[in-house]
């Protein structure tokens, strides 16, 4: 049970969700549930980039501020941001004021548009890299995988920034391409049921 956290309801969950009060709802309702919405996928891969070198708690606490600052992570709008927008965002105390990460988000928005032109949707592209469940490492024992390394390379080849293999693996965990809840976690079965009925984009 070393990987477990017991919630107020007495049910076991992944240990990490006990580290901060705001993690519990995120763990129970979002993390690992399959996502096919392009805006949510874009939001998550951008926020994982912002998290680089920081904690997810920092990003989660600022997530609504990020959503407001980047117009709901609508890549069609973000792709139109210019240097004035970047300067404005660098003064926004509600987000992470890192020029490289802000500029990467704007840059990646245009790359997202190009990728949709190429493949039809971000979801169709990302879900190509869903790993075979039988080949996965034990839950929460890896920080990269063969698929995250390959996906990272493919994104970088298309010009995306802040999409290293570890960032991409965390994105895959969160967006449900992997069910990385530990075996005893009460949410693992729920996620698995959602993944079973999820229609993979094509």
Report on this model:
The protein has a two-stranded antiparallel ribbon. It has one domain (35-176): Orthogonal Bundle (Endonuclease III, domain 1), CATH 1.10.340. With 202 residues, the chain is an all-alpha fold. The chain has helices at residues 23-29, 38-51, 56-61, 63-69, 75-78, 83-89, 99-119, 122-126, 146-157, 165-174, 186-197; strands spanning 4-6, 12-14. Helix 2 (38-51) runs antiparallel to helix 7 and helix 2 packs across helix 10 (165-174). The mean pLDDT is 94.
Total number of distinct structural domains: 1
Mean pLDDT: 94
Query: Assembly state here?
Result: single chain
CA distance, first residue to last residue: 39 Å
Helical coverage, percent range: 40-55%
Classified in CATH, the superfamily is Hypothetical protein, domain 2
Contiguous low-pLDDT stretches (5 residues minimum) are: none
Task: Please tell me what the overall shape is.
Answer: globular
Alpha-beta content class: mainly alpha
CATH fold naming: Endonuclease III, domain 1
CATH architecture: Orthogonal Bundle
GO biological process, one term: base-excision repair
Protein name: DNA-3-methyladenine glycosylase I
Binding site for Zn(2+): 14, 27, 181, 185
Pfam family, one: Adenine_glyco
What secondary-structure arrangement, pairings included, does this model have?
Blueprint: E1 4-6, E2 12-14, H1 23-29, H2 38-51, H3 56-61, H4 63-69, H5 75-78, H6 83-89, H7 99-119, H8 122-126, H9 146-157, H10 165-174, H11 186-197
Antiparallel strand pairs: 1-2
């Amino acid at each position: 049970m070393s990987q477990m956290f017991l919630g107020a309801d007495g049910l076991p969950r992944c240990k990490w969700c006990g580290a901060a009060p705001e993690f519990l709802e995120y763990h129970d309702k979002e993390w690992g549930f399959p996502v096919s919405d392009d805006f949510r996928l874009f939001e998550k891969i951008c926020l994982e980039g912002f998290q680089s070198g920081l904690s997810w708690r920092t990003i989660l606490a600022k997530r609504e501020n990020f959503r407001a600052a980047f117009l709901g992570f609508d890549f069609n709008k973000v792709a139109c941001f210019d240097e004035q927008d970047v300067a404005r965002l660098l003064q926004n105390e509600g987000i992470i004021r890192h020029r490289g990460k802000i500029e990467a988000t704007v840059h990646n928005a245009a790359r997202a548009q190009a990728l949709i032109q190429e493949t039809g949707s971000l979801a169709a592209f990302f879900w190509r890299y869903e790993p075979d469940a039988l080949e996965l490492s034990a839950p929460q024992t890896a920080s990269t995988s063969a698929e995250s390394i390959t996906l990272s390379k493919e994104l970088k080849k298309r010009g995306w920034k802040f999409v290293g293999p570890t960032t991409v693996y965390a994105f895959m965990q969160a967006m449900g391409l992997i069910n990385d809840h530990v075996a005893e976690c009460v949410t693992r079965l729920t996620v698995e049921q959602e993944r079973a009925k999820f229609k993979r984009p094509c």
